[in-house]
Every structure is written in C-alpha cells, then in structure tokens.
C-alpha cells in the first residue's frame, strides 16, 4: 500500500467480496508524527472508522526491528485494513525509533527496549490528546515486551485500559514486569501460538501465573509470525473481542467499496 492514504483507489462491488490479505476496507486514514520526550520523531498512520466515532483504540507496538519488524508487520497492517470497518476500532501504527517502512523512518536508534519507553509514552500521550477512546496497548513479539515493561507504569498506565500480547517471548520482560502488571489490576490478554519459536503455551501458562488477571489462550497450529489467513483472522477476532468486551467473529466478506493494498 502506498504510504500516502490518499493514493488508495476504491472500487465499487455489486456483490459481497471475500476479505483477503490485501483487501483494504473503507476508513479515514492519515499519516501522523509522534514526538518523544527525548526529541525523536516517530512516523506512523492512524486509521479511523469511515463514519462515526471509534469504539476503541489499538496502540500497536511492532516486532523486533532488527529482525524485520515494523509498522507494516502483516497482522498490524491487516488490522488497519479491516478493524475500522468491521469492528469500529481506531488503529494507530508507527515505527519505533530507528525503524523504516514505506511510510518513512523514525529518528533515533534501536535501543533494545530501553529508550523505547519514550516511544510508548509518546504514542499513548498522542492517543489521549486526540481524544481516542478505550485505548489498549497491543504488542507483538518485541512489542509485547514493551507492553509488559511500560504498560503498567505511570503515566502510560493511566492512559490505557489494558494490554494484548501476541507471541510474547518474555526475553526482555522479567518477573518484576509481570508483578507490576499483577499489581496494576489491568486486564492482560495473552495469545500464544502452539508452535511458537520462543515461548509455547505450557511454559507461558506457568510464567503468567504471576499475573492472576491474565487471560491466556494457546492457538493451535499457529506459529510466532501468525502466517496464514486463518491465524490472522483468529488474532483479529481475539483483539476485537478484548477491546469491545464481547465475543466478536469478524465478517470474512464485505459489501461495499474496497481498495487493494500491498
């Protein structure tokens, strides 16, 4: 997809169409820049429902940039394509410091999860300033470590309802971080692929006993990168269900205009 949301060309469909990996559903999209407390500029995109106010907001934190993670990592890109239209959710995606995508490059340098605390702070502060409601941190892989390390610590903790983790490796986040989440009482939804490369459901269940309110689900046959449309659908269903507070099965067809992403 072009880094310019205005470049999207929507085509009318007279019959329902299947929602595929590259299907872009209608939304209000704008490129954004986030300023961190330590002087960095983070580039990103906000996708909002085409009509009306959002019912909730995803502040997404992407996988490890030194291993190819960025704001366009496929689950997040598909979330931005679909969730504004199908679930009424706002999706904020951005490149963590030193990370590049077609949208551009965020200034600064990768810091292994330490200086990235300023990135989490900037994104959540921006979401509050924009009046975006019902804000949830969503972290995938490295992004899940940032959720665990900083999501339960003020001021970020005061801005978000809870956290959602995809494929948490628990490499950088430690027991002290889990204990802070437990003490915060904030909900924590944890999705662990059955065939994950780093942390599988049985071990994850043991580790997350430190967070009594954590709701952990092992996802059969899924792998760390959630490759495969059925696994993307499962992840997005779970994310929407958590944020909206009710079971959600997102439609797999759409009646209306669509565009094509990359």
Descriptive tags:
alpha/beta, eight-stranded mixed sheet
Architecture overview:
The structure is a single chain. The chain is α/β, with parallel strands linked by helices and 262 residues long. It has a single domain (5-260), classed as Rossmann fold (3-Layer(aba) Sandwich). The protein is 27% helix and 24% strand. The protein has six helices and 14 strands. The chain has helices spanning 74-87, 116-129, 142-150, 175-184, 201-207, 229-244, and strands at residues 17-18, 23-24, 28-35, 41-48, 56-61, 89-94, 100-101, 104-105, 135-140, 162-166, 188-193, 214-219, 253-254, 259-260. It has an eight-stranded mixed sheet, sandwiched between helices. The protein is globular and about 55 Å long. The mean pLDDT is 96.
In terms of topology, how is this protein built?
Elements: E1 17-18, E2 23-24, E3 28-35, E4 41-48, E5 56-61, H1 74-87, E6 89-94, E7 100-101, E8 104-105, H2 116-129, E9 135-140, H3 142-150, E10 162-166, H4 175-184, E11 188-193, H5 201-207, E12 214-219, H6 229-244, E13 253-254, E14 259-260
Parallel strand pairs: 5-6, 5-9, 9-10, 10-11, 11-12
Antiparallel strand pairs: 1-13, 2-14, 3-4, 4-6, 7-8
Helix pairs in contact: 1-6, 2-3
Put the structure in a nutshell.
The chain is of the alpha/beta class and 262 residues long. 27% of the residues lie in helices and 24% in strands.
The CATH topology turns out to be: Rossmann fold
Shape: globular
Low-confidence segments, given as residue ranges, are none
Number of helices: 6
Helix amount: 25-40%
């Amino acid at each position: 997809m072009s880094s310019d949301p205005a470049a999207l060309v929507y085509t009318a469909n007279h019959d329902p169409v299947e929602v595929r990996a590259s299907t872009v559903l209608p939304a209000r999209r704008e490129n954004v820049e986030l300023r961190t407390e330590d002087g960095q500029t983070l580039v990103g995109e906000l996708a909002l429902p085409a009509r009306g106010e959002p019912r909730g907001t995803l502040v997404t934190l992407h996988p490890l940039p030194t291993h190819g993670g960025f704001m366009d990592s496929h689950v997040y890109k598909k979330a931005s394509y679909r969730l504004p239209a199908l679930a009424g959710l706002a999706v904020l995606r951005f490149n963590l410091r030193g990370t590049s995508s077609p949208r551009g490059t965020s200034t600064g340098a990768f810091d292994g999860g330490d200086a990235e605390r300023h990135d989490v702070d900037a994104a959540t502060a921006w979401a509050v300033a924009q009046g975006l409601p019902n804000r949830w941190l969503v972290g995938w892989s490295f992004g899940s470590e940032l959720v665990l390390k900083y999501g339960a610590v003020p001021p970020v903790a005061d801005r978000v309802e809870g956290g959602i983790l995809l494929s948490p490796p628990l490499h950088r986040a430690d027991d002290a971080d889990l204990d802070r989440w437990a003490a915060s009482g904030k909900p924590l939804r944890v999705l662990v692929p059955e065939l994950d490369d780093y942390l599988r459901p049985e071990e994850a269940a043991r580790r997350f006993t430190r967070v009594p309110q954590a709701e952990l689900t092992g996802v059969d046959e899924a792998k760390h990168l959630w490759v495969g449309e059925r696994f993307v659908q499962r992840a997005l269903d779970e994310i929407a269900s958590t944020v909206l507070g009710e079971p959600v099965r997102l439609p797999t067809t759409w009646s209306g205009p669509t565009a094509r992403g990359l």
